[in-house]
């Protein structure tokens, strides 16, 4: 089981409280598709992804970014049992969506970069980054847990 | 995944904007690396002070960004441009090359915090590609 220090819990919940899922989610997903274009393989049904501008303006990308980012809410609410909280989601990503779990790690990095850009060095300090990335690493691990 | 002319132009344009702050970027990136990825501290057991913003961290951050500056200047031939640095990392410092990715991520985070407006998606992909290419060049002499 993951052990969170009081400082880490506080940092994660505080940061989560500041994050606008409707803003960061679309940004993060768009950047994932732009910076790591092979990830577009999972979004063939999303319409025009042919240019950066198309990706940034694509409403399906924005909506899905919001969905994915919103999924982190469950992890924040169940920080002491993220693994079990995400069992169904993990099965879905493996059996139905066929997503390479390395993509979760990559998206987590992109989310951190977007959060860093949004909040700057005085909010997203080294300690906050440590807690936030530890949290995302646990989510990433949970999402990959049911793959076989 | 080699650097296109567009990537190189984007890297040079971004570098022109951020290079004045190179020392600060280096110090912050290194501090974050040591905090967020504590296993990296194993390479610096000889330092008296590993805390964020300490004198050794600042000095070393400056050195690291000097290396990035060199890489920017040799962007058309990173393998040869970084050969000497590769030898040092491989034989003297013996840094596991997996750590280059870690420091690269921290550099991206710091550039994002300090230059959010300039760190567009285009700049992001170009810088990520560039740091990956530089890391590959740094690994050249390992085996």
Automatic annotation (TrEMBL), chain A:
GO molecular function terms attached to this record: haptoglobin binding; heme binding; metal ion binding; organic acid binding; oxygen binding; oxygen carrier activity; peroxidase activity
A Gene Ontology CC term for this entry? Answer: hemoglobin complex
GO BP? hydrogen peroxide catabolic process
Which InterPro entries does this one have? Globin, Globin-like_sf, Globin/Proto, Hemoglobin_b, Hemoglobin_oxygen_transport
Instruction: Write out the entry's keywords from A to Z.
Output: Heme, Iron, Metal-binding, Oxygen transport, Transport
The record's listing under Gene3D superfamilies reads: Globins
The Globin domain covers which part of the protein? 3-148
What family is this?
A: Belongs to the globin family.
Q: What does the function comment of this entry state?
A: Involved in oxygen transport from gills to the various peripheral tissues.
Q: How does it assemble?
A: Heterotetramer of two alpha chains and two beta chains.
Give the protein's recorded name.
Hemoglobin subunit beta-A
Automatic annotation (TrEMBL), chain B:
Does the record's keyword annotation contain Iron? Answer: yes
Give UniProt keywords alphabetically.
Heme, Iron, Metal-binding, Oxygen transport, Transport
InterPro entries the record matches: Globin (IPR000971), Globin-like_sf (IPR009050), Globin/Proto (IPR012292), Hemoglobin_a-typ (IPR002338), Hemoglobin_oxygen_transport (IPR050056), Hemoglobin_pi (IPR002339)
Residues forming the Globin domain are 2-143
Any Gene Ontology CC annotation: hemoglobin complex
Q: Which Gene3D superfamilies match?
A: Globins
CDD domains registered for this protein in UniProt: Hb-alpha-like
Q: Name one GO molecular function term.
A: iron ion binding
The similarity annotation says: Belongs to the globin family.
The UniProt entry, under PANTHER family, shows: HEMOGLOBIN FAMILY MEMBER, HEMOGLOBIN SUBUNIT ZETA
Q: What is this protein called?
A: Hemoglobin subunit alpha-like protein
Origin species, per record, is Lates japonicus
The organism's taxonomic lineage, starting at the top: Eukaryota, Metazoa, Chordata, Craniata, Vertebrata
């Amino acid at each position: 089981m993951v052990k969170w220090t009081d400082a880490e819990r506080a940092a994660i919940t505080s940061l989560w409280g500041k994050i606008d899922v409707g803003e960061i989610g679309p940004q993060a997903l768009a950047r994932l598709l732009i910076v790591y274009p092979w990830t577009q393989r999972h979004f063939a049904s999303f319409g025009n992804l042919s240019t950066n501008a198309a990706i940034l303006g694509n409403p399906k990308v924005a909506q899905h970014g919001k969905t994915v980012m919103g999924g982190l809410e469950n992890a924040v609410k169940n920080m002491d049992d993220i693994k079990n909280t995400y069992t169904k989601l993990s099965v879905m990503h493996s059996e139905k969506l066929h997503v390479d779990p390395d993509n979760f790690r990559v998206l987590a990095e992109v989310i951190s970069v977007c959060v860093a850009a949004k909040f700057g060095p005085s909010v997203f300090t080294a300690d906050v980054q440590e807690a936030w990335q530890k949290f995302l690493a646990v989510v990433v691990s949970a999402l990959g847990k049911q793959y076989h | 995944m080699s650097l296109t002319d567009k990537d190189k132009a984007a890297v040079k344009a971004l570098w022109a904007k951020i290079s004045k702050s190179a020392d600060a970027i280096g110090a912050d990136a290194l501090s974050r690396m040591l905090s967020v990825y504590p296993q990296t501290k194993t390479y610096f057991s000889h330092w008296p002070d590993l805390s964020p913003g300490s004198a050794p961290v600042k000095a070393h951050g400056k050195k690291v960004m000097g290396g990035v500056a060199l890489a920017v200047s040799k962007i058309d031939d990173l393998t040869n441009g970084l050969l000497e640095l590769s030898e040092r990392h491989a034989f003297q410092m013996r840094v596991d090359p997996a750590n280059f990715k870690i420091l690269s991520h921290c550099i991206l985070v710091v550039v994002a915090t300090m230059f959010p407006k300039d760190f567009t998606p285009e700049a992001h992909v170009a810088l990520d590609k560039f740091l990956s290419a530089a890391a590959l060049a740094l690994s050249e002499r390992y085996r």
